[in-house]
Design brief:
Order of helices and strands: HHHEHHEEHEE
Mean pLDDT: 84
Distance between the termini: 45 Å
Shape: elongated
Structural class: alpha+beta
Number of strands: 5
Strand content: 5-15%
Strand order of the largest sheet: 1-3-2
Helix content: 55-70%
Amino acid sequence: MIVDQLRTQFSDEEMDRLFQAFADTTRRDIVRRVTVAEYSVSGLAALYTMSFAAVQKHVAVLERASLVAKEKRGREQIVRANHDGLQKARRLLDEYEVIWRQRADRIADLLAETATAEPDRTQAGNTKTSKTETGKSQDRKGLS
């Protein structure tokens, strides 16, 4: 089964790191930015209303998840996308999409089976009456 394949391709720790990395808006934005161009950590810090240290911590989370790589150039740390890590994450998410689409299809099949197995309740004398504001009884079928 696909779930078993996911477990052999990704350890629980790898999946935890990946989902933790994607769980934060700032980290997702950093990934988006560095897939387009390289940034220094200080350059990234200038883009957000948080401290340099906070941005460094976000970059460290992304690095542990193998989504970005840091390289020291002179006095600066340059952050760039780790395309292999991003491809691996994409494959994982694609496999989860297959699982959830299969489950949704199965639910739709079960609902269709249930609908054909039960008689149509809106037919054959299944009308209820209710009182209106004026106190007159009215057929609920007419209200729909």
